Known about the structure:
By secondary structure, the protein is mainly alpha-helical. About 0% of the residues have low confidence.
Amino acid sequence: AMRYLVDRFGLTENFLILAAAYAIVMILSASYIRPPRKGEIPMLLEEVLEEEIRKDGEKTAQAKGLTRKEAMHTWKWYVLWWIFFTNITCGIGLLAVASPMAQEIIGMSATEAASLVGIIGIVNGAGRILWASVSDWIGRGVTYMIFFAFEVFAFYALAHVSDALLFEILVLAVISCYGCMPAFLSDLFGVKQLASIHGSILTAWGMAGVAGPLLLSFMKETTGGYGATLYLFSAMLAVAFVLSAILAWKGRK
Length: 253
């Protein structure tokens, strides 16, 4: 759609049209959402939450319900921030160069590369639903360990791949590895100020949105290719895997 708008109306007009469309969708969506009124939450759900608190014990964050300030004074918040920053930096970095990599290294046409970028958006949204559901069964820490273990391999492999199908599979699989952070935060810090805690963690997303493309562009100009950056991302993800393992181990303990 963006390619069509750019070709038909121009780059500036493309962003103006998208801004108007996004504004309409967001305003309509925001007008529909509201907090539940007293008595609207089924008693059965409240009883389930109370039972979970009794079952987990008073030492859990669910029972305590940490505030944002309290959460930010724990080491787990900083570990989660770095995990989130790493995952987004590598993901956005890959997204920024998916089209040029597909054309320069794999030999795709501009239309094929643009189609791949469009599919990336669909897979990213579907991955968030899929992995969030899976994490309910296997745990958030284990889910992130799976993310990073695969991504270490995927980014290393992307530095060598030349087959179009394998390139597409690796890119789409990497882009699907998102969606568990809010649930992870609620597991560790409770839901008392979950929105505020999540907002503080999202600063990692903002910084990663700048760091990923800038780092990749700098490395591309310095080394003349994408391989060095992909190796660097693979190493960063290996560190994130270790941190995820620590969180998973501490969670079980």
